[in-house]
Design brief:
Chain A is α+β, with helices and mostly antiparallel strands. Chain A folds into two domains: 206 residues, 2-Layer Sandwich (Cytochrome Bc1 Complex, Chain A, domain 1), CATH 3.30.830; 201 residues, Metalloenzyme, LuxS/M16 peptidase-like (Cytochrome Bc1 Complex, Chain A, domain 1). In chain A, the strands form two sheets. Chain A has a six-stranded mixed sheet, with helices on both faces. Chain A has a six-stranded mixed sheet with strand order 9-10-8-11-7-12, with helices on both faces. In chain A, β1 and β2 form a beta hairpin. Chain A is globular, with a radius of gyration of 24 Å. Chain B has two domains: 208 residues, Cytochrome Bc1 Complex, Chain A, domain 1 (2-Layer Sandwich), CATH 3.30.830.10; 183 residues, Metalloenzyme, LuxS/M16 peptidase-like (Cytochrome Bc1 Complex, Chain A, domain 1). Chain B has 15 helices and eleven strands. Chain B is globular, with a radius of gyration of 23 Å. Classes of the chains: A alpha+beta, B alpha+beta. At the A-B interface, α1, α3, β5, α5 and α10 of A face α2, α4, α10 and α12 of B.
């Protein structure tokens, strides 16, 4: 007991400097609004001759695709870089590679994003290209055909890898008809019915400056940056029409068990994902849930990894996480093992979930989780690009610039009972979705003890 | 690679770089203890965090048949108990103090990469020093960890078509040198390593005179040096490990590996024997690889992916290795693509470089890529620590890092055709194909 008190005191004392520094230096970015309504957040960081920026376009993500058009948001974003009114796809690629610059487009569920990064001296050219891609994409038929073919082929090769296949099957199984069930990769049937017209339509309806935000972090001063932005992305015209609503239906929560087995006859291991209701980004419980998850499956010495990997050597890795969006989220636990061990692995996973819900974690574990989360904070946003990402996150999810202070305070104040409440509330008991990808003839019998599995063949089209 | 817990929890926390430190050769401090341990420091106080990297000069290059994969296995066992800290204690204590880590083994080296808040420094030094000499290899844990590595091999190689093909091609191209096998090792070796042999291997290679310590971040050099002396000085130096003397004999003709297995898409790979990283030709090939296959503007991407539409992607190049290794060109073909045609196009593009070299624009592009990648790599404490350590182990000195960009710019555009001609020819080539059986 004495030892415990001393160690608690010691760590409290030691952690104070870290906390204070974090909060003192939490740099609030400068905010500017360009003539076309685009909101800019800027922080100067002169450490290296580099600049990063990120543009977030709300409403242009996969959740806003019409039903059955999986991959539309992704194809739209991808084609932005494949030719504009001024430059061909080759010219864009050549100009970017020539500078050693990075320019990527991506689609998440809730938004599309453009990420750019280069030496400071190349920023004018990079921003000019990025703006050109956002403002006047050419959407040429031949480029579209090429991207569509590439996507169709990638979809096949994804199914060769059980881990990647599992992610896609799980998403369909969990979200079903909900827009978060749309697969960025596309599906066999969605890609067959895709059209360039649909992409053009999605772009015109969904990409606009006045609802978008850009964060810029790096070695550049405010005045030259503003001038540069006005000349480039500031020229993106604001459409006359009012923005489309960006409403996403409530995220589904499983009722009862949904069990799916995907037969992959050449798999030497079985991969599983178990998912259940999680929480929204801004949820009051999110800090406590993070701490709880660190202990359950969010780090190397977590319960899950300790029992499945460290003690039994069943797997190379086992983990759990919360994935959160604006209006909800999921809890997800995953691992893999030899086909004949999948039953043992699932039994242990269910036992641990039960133990966490019913018995919970000790005060010493809670302390370790707090230290871990606080100790790992600083380097997670060490780069320009990760800082830019954090700004967009704060703005998009409406968290407020004191978010990290509040978050840290909450972490610091959390005790075992808070974590245990989160575990009891959030870890699945009877309501979950379980998807297994493995060798059917070997695992079918083992799995039958958990209930009736719906069976799929990996070679069948779609998911 | 030992674990993948890369901070799922984090979309979080902001730090600026108001206290910036310059990163030049003069800012690096270097020490060596009497037992041979080399220490490299770079103080940088911009975030309250320290990256503490330990590099051992041991990798699969130092193994022999029967013991393949053992370097990587010891990397796992380094977390499984010493006389002072029981199995799993290292991770438990480190995480309790707010630290996290990873580790990796390559053909040439094994690195232990810790990052933690400053208050954890002494505890981390104590535990790192302890496991440099005190592993117990508990027989039960020994067996359980064997299972983890077997699972890692199943996941990483046997359930991954590209990895299966790569392992086969590499073992075909390289006959004699220990680069013949992959870091993970052969399954039959994984299943039969003997505990006494593994312990012997550990004793030989995990010695202070075979290690380099790199510390970057928020610490005080003088105090930290004292702590390092306190915990590491008592570790005795060992007889230096035997040098690797096997040299790969010249290849006498084109080799080909064809694998037939269940798959939805084929895989394709071409490799050529290539020089070690300290060879002058290494830099020329490294310049050449950028316009050849890096990025969507590269020659091979344009032809294979865009123009002929035979492939989904192409990547590869030369790797920094202590001994001569391979220049590889990996192609992910489209389903049903003509693999012979892919090979022919690669030949054509390589011959164009042999005959006409790079354009001025391509040459300049390579230089720009090298310069910006260099800065991208320096953005974090861990990035700096990794580059300092790799320079020390692969190029002979950390100082190399500060001249690397200049070293590349010494490559003349005119010398590239001759260097390309030396390596990219039929006798030096191994081709691998994975052809799907059933379906497709």
């Amino acid at each position: 007991m004495m030892k415990k008190i001393i160690s608690l005191l010691l760590l409290t004392i030691l952690l104070i400097p870290v906390m204070t520094m974090a909060s003192e230096r939490l740099p609030k970015p400068e905010k500017m609004v360009l003539g076309n309504g685009l909101t800019v957040y800027f922080l100067k960081n002169p450490e290296l001759p580099l600049v990063s920026f990120r543009v977030l376009i709300p409403g242009a993500g996969s959740a806003f695709e019409p039903r059955g058009s999986d991959g539309l948001a992704n194809l739209t974003a991808t084609l932005l870089l494949k030719g504009t009114a001024k430059m061909s796809a080759e010219e864009i690629a050549e100009a970017l590679d020539f500078m050693g610059a990075r320019l990527r487009v991506a689609d998440a569920e809730e938004y599309a994003a453009v990420y750019g990064e280069s030496l400071s001296e190349h920023l004018p050219k990079l921003l000019q290209i990025a703006a050109d891609c956002l403002i006047s994409p050419a959407f040429k038929q031949d480029e579209y055909q090429k991207e569509l073919a590439r996507k169709t082929d990638s979809l096949k090769s994804l199914k060769d890898n059980p881990g990647s296949a599992l992610r896609l099957y799980f998403r369909k199984a969990y979200f079903g008809e909900h827009p978060f069930g749309h697969l960025s990769t596309g599906t066999d049937s969605s890609l067959k019915k895709m059209s360039l017209e649909e992409i053009k339509k999605f772009y015109s309806a969904r990409y606009r400056p006045d609802t978008s935000i850009i964060a810029v972090v790096g070695n550049i001063d405010k005045e030259p940056l503003l001038e540069l932005l006005n000349k480039t992305i500031g020229q993106w015209p604001k459409p006359a029409a009012a923005p489309l609503p960006v409403i996403i239906p409530p995220i589904p929560a499983p009722k009862g068990k949904k069990l799916i087995l995907v037969d992959k006859p050449d798999a030497t291991q079985s991969y599983f994902s178990l998912g259940s209701r999680g929480l929204a980004v801004a949820d009051q419980m999110s800090a406590r849930a993070s701490l709880m998850n660190i202990l359950f499956g969010g780090r190397f010495t977590s319960w899950l990894n300790t029992e499945l990997r460290i003690k039994r050597g069943l797997t190379y890795g086992a983990s759990s996480s919360f994935q959160s969006w604006k209006n909800g989220g999921i809890f997800l636990a995953s691992s893999y093992t030899k086909n004949d061990k999948i039953g043992e692995m699932l039994d242990i996973t269910f036992d641990l979930l039960k133990k966490a819900r019913e018995k919970g974690f000790s005060e010493e574990e809670a302390e370790s989780a707090r230290n871990y989360l606080l100790g790992q904070f600083p380097q997670t946003l060490e780069t320009n690009s990760s800082k830019a990402g954090a700004y967009l996150r704060i703005i998009f999810y409406d968290l407020g610039f004191d978010y990290y202070d509040r978050y840290l305070n909450e972490i610091t104040g959390a005790r075992a009972r808070d974590l245990n409440q989160a575990a009891a509330k959030l870890l699945p008991d009877k309501d979950f979705v379980l998807v297994v990808v493995g060798r059917g003839d070997e695992v079918k019998k083992i799995l039958s003890r958990y209930g009736q599995f719906q069976e799929k063949k990996i070679t069948d089209p779609d998911f | 690679m030992r674990n993948r817990f890369l901070l799922i929890l984090l979309g979080v926390m902001l730090m600026t770089a108001f206290l910036q430190a310059s990163f030049t050769k003069q800012d690096i401090k270097v020490y060596q203890l009497d037992n041979g341990l080399k220490i490299i420091f770079f103080e940088d106080h911009k975030i309250p965090s320290i990256s503490y990297y330990t590099f051992f000069r041991v990798g699969s290059r130092n193994e022999r048949p029967g013991l393949t994969g053992v370097s990587h296995y010891i990397e796992h066992m380094m977390f499984n108990g010493t006389t002072k800290f029981g199995p799993g204690e290292f991770d438990r204590i480190m995480e309790f103090y707010g630290g996290a880590n990873n580790a990796y083994t390559s053909d040439d080296m094994t690195a232990y990469t810790d990052w933690f808040p400053p208050h954890a420094l002494e505890k981390m030094i104590e535990m790192e020093a302890d496991r440099m000499q005190g592993l117990i290899f508990d027989p039960e844990v020994f067996e359980s960890e064997r299972g983890v590595v077997a699972s890692e091999r199943r996941m990483g190689v046997e359930n991954n078509n590209e990895a299966i093909l790569y392992e086969n091609v590499r073992a075909t191209a390289i006959m004699a040198h220990p680069y013949h096998w992959d870091v993970i090792g052969w399954m039959s070796d994984i299943l039969s390593w003997r505990r006494d042999e593994v312990i012997q291997y550990y004793r030989t290679y995990y010695a202070p005179n075979n290690a380099v310590l790199v510390v970057v971040g928020d610490f005080d050099s003088q105090k930290t040096l004292e702590l390092i002396k306190k915990y590491y000085s008592g570790i005795p130096a060992q007889t230096p490990p035997p040098p690797v003397t096997t040299a790969e004999p010249p290849q006498m003709g084109r080799k080909e590996v064809v694998i037939k297995k269940e798959a939805q898409t084929p895989s394709f790979l071409v490799v050529y024997h290539a020089p070690r990283c300290q060879d002058a030709d290494f830099f020329a090939l490294s310049v050449m690889e950028k316009p050849l296959l890096q990025g969507e503007s590269s020659r091979l991407y344009r032809r294979l992916v865009r123009d002929e539409q035979l492939a989904i992607s192409v990547y590869g190049g030369i790797e920094e290795k202590i001994d001569p290794f391979l220049f590889s060109i990996n192609v992910k073909p489209r389903p049903g693509a003509d693999l012979d045609k892919i090979e022919k196009i690669i030949d054509e593009e390589l011959n164009k470089i042999i005959n006409d070299g790079l354009t001025e624009q391509e040459y300049q592009k390579a230089m720009n890529i090298i310069r910006s990648d260099f800065y991208f790599g320096l953005q974090t404490n861990s990035g700096k620590a990794n580059l300092l350590g790799a320079s020390e182990l692969l190029f002979g000195s950390y100082e190399h890092l500060f001249t690397i960009v200049d070293r590349y710019s010494q490559v003349k555009r005119e010398e590239i055709p001759a260097v390309a001609k030396k390596y990219f020819h039929e006798l030096n080539k191994t081709v691998g194909k994975l052809i799907p059986q059933g379906g497709n």
